[in-house]
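Q: Start with the shorter request: fold the first protein.
A: Done. Sequence, then structure:
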Amino acid sequence: MAAHRTGDVNAANGYKNQPSGYQLKELNDSQKQYIRSSIPILESSGVELTKLFYQKMLKNYPEVRPYFNKVHQKSLSQPRILAFALLNYARNIDNLTLLSELVDQIVTKHVGLQIKAEHYPIVGHCLLATMQEVLGRDIACPGFLEAWTIAYGNLAKILIDKEKSVYENQPWNGFAEFEVVKLIDESFDVKSVYFAPKNKEFKIAPAYPGQYITIAWKIPGLPHETLREYSLSKYPDIQNNMYRISVRRIKDGVVCNYVHEHLKKGDVVGVSPPVGKFTYRKFEGNQSLPVLCFAGGIGITPIISIVESALLDGRKVVFCYSNRNYVSRPFKNWLLQIKDQYKDQIKLKEFFSQEAYVHNEEVIDELMTRVLHRADIKELISADCDIYLLGPNNYMRFVKEELLKLGVQPNKIATEFFGPYSP
């Protein structure tokens, strides 16, 4: 573990030499009150605190830098997520069982990234140090810091134990070497990448439709590997021992621009096993129900195998797909193929938000040159159906809120999001 850095406070030093030895310790009433007293602070200044925490950690501990996306730091989406988690932890300090869903989300996220027990002391050390520096001695007094030290240790213990049980059941741990075997342009700004194990004897793991993998990229000029998560945009090709991901190019995106400009057949990357809970739900009692899918932009990637699975099960599918325009719409050939193969079993409704006119050859089933409206969602809801939703934050927030207003039960809406919806 890294040595002590100048400026780090003594209150958190104990974590640096505690790689996996956390023990559950019950908080007393006084300590719980210190945690509760953090609620208004986290509500008003949580994002500022977590932003400074990440700056401290990423500056002083280069070993954790591969796990974090600079774009997410700049947009504050990562600090918002951590602030959200800390706030909910404080709000539920008297009954942590209410956090079981949040804990499961964190575990899935950590396992996807291959976070290990030895990373937790760094986070705890920097978090407590930041609290003391930002809040000052009047608030972050010895009792306050002791309470949060115990609270963090308890949370770390819970997460480490749960993650360990998942790792023990994975087909491999860490990042196996995979080789790029094919690259396909899906639109002007989306490229599909096919990977196969470098070791021909190594067999890929099956995945549930909708799951994702994490790729460890070696970007020229960067001193460390860079990790990024990608939904599998096709059910794993077990016969040919391949995975496929699809990457949209965005401005200032280090990895996505590398993929579009420099990645080539034969390049080697690290790949972690498939994980994720945004998956096709198949159980006795729902096989006759129709499926309604909402996807915005590159959010289509996990939806592809979900749609295919539902169609193979004989279920009717309505697929509502939003893009900016026809040149930014990926997977046109796939959309044409499933429509041709399944005919009236699938209904495709597309929305192009920035297109005033569309050539007839671009219309596959039904296409509107406008954004998705509430009336569209209301029209699509059947008496009982399974719903899958993925896309940009604002898109997901809008669609989910409208579904709930229309009386759809939350457990009928499968989505993949961690933290607060934010721009």
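Q: Next, the second protein, separately.
A: Sequence, then structure:
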Amino acid sequence: MHIPKKALAVMAAALLTGTAGIAQAQEARNVIVFLGDAGGLPTLNAGGILAHDKPLSLFIQSMPYVALSDTSSANRWVTDSGAGMTAIMTGHKTNNSMVSAIPTSPNGGVTAVKTLLEYAEQRGLSTGVMTNMKIWDATPAATYAHVASRKDKDSIFQQMLKPHLGDGVDILIGKGRADAVASFAARQTTAEKAFAGAGYRFGEDPAIVRDAARAAVLRDSDFAPIPAVEATIAQLAKNPKGYFLMVEWDMHTSGDPKKGLRHVVEMDDMIRRVQEIAGKDTLILFTADHSFGLRMGGGERGAPLLQQYEAAAGEPGVTTETNDVISVQDGHTGEEVIVAASGPGADKVRGFMPNTRLFDIMLSAFGWKRDQ
């Protein structure tokens, strides 16, 4: 069959245009990582069924790309949040309790390792950290600070305002206001003055971030997650270069399993909403820093699981550990956790992987390479 040269030229141009579009689509303008602290597979499964009384009911469970991630640290089979988040944010395994630092000598010496947030800061992107835990705790700290011990909150607060690289996180939302007050008082100043001196609008209402390119929202109580993440993204998205955002939500189930499982649904609802507003140029990742000792061991279909759990809990002698519907052995566990993803670069999320590979996936999605 004869095809005129002009037609061939048009077809070739269309093919090249389409190829260029595919290549462009593989590069993310924005990356958002959702971190379910202690959000292992048993917790996600129980949280979804407890809320919706059916399996595979979470939005996370509909995301198109899925993998399983090893969470072991450099010195333990079972990680803590410091080492777990360090691996995700820097691509380096480290010892438990260390935060974006790796051991370099037997006597306790450490070396800082560059975080993805710091890569973003150096390239002029906007950055945000949002958590329903303390803003200086191990998971958020691993995005911007470098310490040998996650307990060193004074050093973490200091690095929050005088960062290792760049000018620091643009939007900070989390708990720990009383800790900040005490930490800065020990240095003969106030939290308000310290944050204002670093260019932040300081307050307790997450809504302030809509009107401030740099804002620090510190509080000691819970806040509504979806309005907070919407306001954060609205502010960060003003940067034409893009943004990096980390959102942590506590899913620990020790003491009160219902609270941790409710947080599963809160984060899932956040991810669903962010998928709607973030745009197709945004890589969205969900994962956990480690799993937890929760197990769903019973329950009948046809009746709300929550009622069955509460009925079992009311029986004489039944404890959180022995409840045969949902039981909890308090502590981290070492099995792999899920990674779920959508958007540019999400196709690299597949199979079994070390948690350090998530750093490379995010870096690659931005089109960046590791510093040598």
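Q: Describe the second briefly.
A: Residues 47 and 261 are 5 Å apart (CA to CA). The chain is about 35% helix and 20% strand.
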